[in-house]
Amino acid sequence: MLKKNLFTIGIMLATQFMAAKADVDPNFHIYLCFGQSNMEGNAQWEQVDNEVDTRFQMLATTNFDSPKRTMGTWYTANCPIVSPMGKLGPTDYFGRTMVAAMPTNVKIDVVAVAMGVPVGTKVQLFDLRGMPVYSSISDGTTVTIPLHSRSIHVLKVGSEVIKL
Question: How far apart are CA 127 and CA 14, in angstroms?
């Protein structure tokens, strides 16, 4: 028992010296937004939706041509947030509502990953135990959909950008 306790204490001390240290900014809030096609957004935005407080930021989780965005870079959270094909979605007004409710020195930052899948896709597509999962599209084509590996990749890019 003593050896086990000493080993545990040794591991705890070693990890304290090996761990990366970073200052925590209590005014920098990051929210991870995962979902399916509804998270990507399907409502057309209007002129009023173009007015975004600069404290509401998004991490581009894919490259965009229009508007021009690079994966792993922070931007003011103008529509579309999730992908170039996306529209106005829940992440947009979640972030806007949070900014409005917070003191003016607080930034709200979102990392949004959403994947639209064919209608009728089985829930097993999102089960980590079955990865990789194959989905049969209506025309009989079978494709690999690496949903979780894409999400993990985006989180790794995001953690490098924000130095987690």
Answer: 35
Residue 108 confidence (pLDDT): 95
Pairing of strands 107-115, 28-36: parallel
Q: How many residues would you count in the chain?
A: 164
* Mean pLDDT, rounded, for 108-131: 68
CA distances from 110 to 33, 59, 79 (A): 7, 6, 13
Token duo for residue 35: 């979902």
pLDDT at 41: 84
Phi, psi of 39 (to 5 degrees): -70, -30
**How far is residue 61 CA from its own chain's centroid?**
7
Phi, psi of 27, deg, nearest 5: -100, 10
Q: Which residue has the tokens 């079955």?
A: 130
Beta strands in 61-152 (DSSP E): 74-76, 107-115, 134-136, 142-144
Q: How many Cβ atoms are within 10 Å of 38's Cβ, its own excluded?
A: 11
CB within 8 Å of 37: residues ≥ 6 apart: 114, 115, 116, 117
**Phi then psi dihedrals of residue 54, to 5 deg:** -65, -15
Six token digits for residue 142: 């079978």
| pTM recorded for the entire structure | 0.64
